[in-house]
Amino acid sequence: MFDFQDQVVIVTGSTGNLGRAVVRAFQVAGAHVVAPDRSVGQAKEVFPALWDSKDHLVVEGVDVTNPEQVKKLVQDVLGRFGRIDILINTVGGYRADGPVHQTSFETWDFLMNLNARSVFTTSRAVIPSMLKQGRGKIVNVSSRSALAAQGNDSAYSAAKSAVARLTESMAAEYKKLGIQVNAILPSALVSAADLKEDPTRGVTPESVAQVILALCSEACAIINGALIPAYGLRF
Description:
- This protein is an alpha/beta fold.
- 44% of the residues lie in helices and 16% in strands.
- The longest helix is centred in the middle third of the chain and has 29 residues, at 105-133.
- The radius of gyration is 17 Å and the shape is globular.
């Protein structure tokens, strides 16, 4: 359905449930996929077909909250492919933190770094190459919690709200320079079997991946700075 032939796509959080679906969707659509992962050994197991492929790049041991490691990743990608067309920030996570007075500083820092700093760090590193080529697309993964906190999730909601505000800021800053920035707000990610059992449980990673591909396609070239809900039937 989508054609990303010869486009270079970086997918952070590539071995997570959503990251895997996004990597595979772009691979099927013809893109050169770059799959960085913080761990060592897991990416090779998850993406054996990509590991030794000249058309793709799997990079292990990359902490996307670390500016120097991300800078090295971008240099490696540009050295290999000469360009970066798309950045998909799927890195993120949730940790229950209770009410504010019971939320530890460690939990606050962990969730802010994982969800928000990662987006800032990778975008900051990739944007100069996109500016140089005069085009690029960035899709961030936020959450419904960015729009309305439910309580007992202050650190997570604040972090995902930061992702939403980063998305809107970047969209405004680069819209006249050829870079399109949007975010998707998925609900709970569940398996197809779970969804078949109860259609209101959430959305599948594969369905979210298709929305991300749509946002990166020319069909959605007029969409910029949007926070796209992907709640399924849950809400």
